[in-house]
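A.,

Following up on our hallway conversation. Structure tokens first:
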């Protein structure tokens, strides 16, 4: 059941960690339609996102701003005065978060046409993404468009922050890299949460075990850590966080950061009160998931141990740190440019194509360069190198070109995800790099 109680004061969130909601809000088109059923023209999540994006105006630097009167309409507010009250709370939350409200909420004038056709200026407010995020969080949660906007602006604000601060485009990260990123964030934020819990009165190891278990119980419908392991058929000694996909990790990250914020903001004292607060935040995040997607965290699939993925990533980083020629010659039993090997071209050529790509800038190579480089690593017969008069090309060159032209075949290395088809050639993928390191190691 969704908690629809109205809050008297401003809602302050630590938006640095709202990327968690990106994975929580994996809503399919049918569910989005139900979520915003009062907006009949919206029939997909893409259309709903487009409405919010279209209402904003592009500004220098690639971001957007919104005008409060337009946002009021999007969020279902018919009376401007009612919406101004929401903005007042949002400004207060902004100041409480340590930001200058004037940097995010700018008073402006807006010309409108009155009945006689004449123009008249009315007061308006220009809002950046963070301001919109705070407005949505302080809006009336009973309004369905507000429920969507809370997640939408959290996602977009966090995306922009990642781009500005770290140059990270989270949406373009692979699932494994999203898991690694979120898992590292969870480790960091648990330390902060433990600090806040200790300040509240959680002291002994037994106290901390109970405190963290309460958070899981709130988020997982009453299941603590041991029950979650049994439900997901995980080993008794497994760390449940290590077997979560990015969606589930993000939900837990949101739970952790918001509990830490709640303990400090409300100055909660006493270990029992801290446990209750953690449980309540877990329940609230669960309600949000239920409202937006309906896929409860305990029913999300079990993922491969993230520690294995981290080990593979470290191995790739070590490989990328080795100079290109050394990378070919030292870790590999074969091939070497000075000592080409004999292979079955029909079965194994793609493996050596990946090897050559792995030491090229950005992992890319043109088809013609691949044709030129390959004889340095694999033996070719005179028959393979002979020019086909009808094609003005060699048999070998055609075999290489077939790596691209046959990309729709299920046995092709592009189809299987080891390489990408790029303009004029190929680009190795993370999966391809992992294969090279495994296949050609000593």
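Then the amino acids I'd put at each of the 442 positions:
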């Amino acid at each position: 059941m969704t908690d629809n109680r109205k809050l008297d004061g401003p809602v302050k969130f630590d938006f640095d960690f709202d990327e968690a909601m990106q994975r929580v809000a994996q809503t399919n088109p049918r569910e989005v339609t139900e979520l915003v059923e009062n907006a009949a023209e919206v029939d997909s999540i893409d259309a709903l996102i487009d409405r919010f994006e279209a209402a904003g105006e592009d500004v220098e630097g690639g971001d957007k701003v919104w005008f409060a009167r337009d946002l009021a309409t999007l969020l279902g507010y018919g009376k401007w005065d009612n919406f101004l009250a929401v903005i007042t709370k949002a400004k207060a939350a902004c100041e409480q978060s340590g930001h200058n409200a004037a940097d995010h909420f700018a008073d402006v004038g807006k010309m409108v046409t009155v009945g006689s056709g004449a123009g008249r200026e009315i007061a308006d407010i220009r809002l950046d993404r963070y301001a919109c995020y705070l407005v949505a969080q302080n809006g009336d949660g009973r309004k369905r468009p507000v429920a969507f906007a809370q997640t939408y602006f959290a996602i977009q604000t966090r995306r922009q922050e990642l781009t500005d601060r770290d140059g990270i485009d989270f949406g373009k990260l692979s699932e494994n890299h999203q898991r690694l990123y979120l898992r590292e964030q969870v480790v960091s934020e648990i330390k902060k949460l433990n600090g806040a819990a200790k300040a509240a009165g959680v002291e002994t190891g037994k106290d901390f075990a109970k405190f963290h278990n309460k958070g899981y119980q709130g988020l997982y419908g009453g299941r603590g850590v041991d029950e979650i392991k049994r439900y997901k058929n995980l080993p008794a000694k497994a760390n449940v966080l290590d077997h979560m996909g990015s969606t589930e990790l993000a939900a837990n990250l949101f739970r952790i950061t918001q509990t830490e914020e709640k303990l400090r903001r409300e100055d909660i004292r006493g270990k029992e009160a801290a446990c209750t607060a953690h449980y309540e935040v877990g329940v609230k995040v669960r309600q949000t998931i239920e409202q937006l997607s309906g896929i409860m965290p305990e029913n999300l699939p079990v993922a491969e141990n993230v520690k294995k993925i981290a080990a593979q990533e470290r191995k790739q980083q070590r490989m990328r740190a080795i100079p290109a020629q050394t990378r070919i010659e030292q870790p590999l039993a074969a091939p070497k440019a000075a000592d080409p090997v004999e292979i079955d071209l029909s079965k194994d050529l793609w493996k050596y194509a990946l090897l050559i790509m792995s030491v090229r800038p950005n992992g890319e190579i043109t088809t013609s360069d691949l044709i030129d480089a390959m004889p340095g690593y694999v033996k070719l017969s005179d028959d393979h190198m002979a020019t086909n008069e009808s094609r003005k090309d060699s048999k070998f060159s055609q075999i290489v070109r077939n790596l691209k032209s046959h990309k729709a075949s299920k046995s092709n290395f592009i189809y299987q995800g080891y390489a990408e088809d790029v303009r004029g050639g190929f680009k190795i993928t993370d999966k391809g790099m992992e294969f090279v390191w495994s296949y050609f190691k000593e």
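The chain has a mean pLDDT of 76. Curious whether your intuition agrees with the design.

B.
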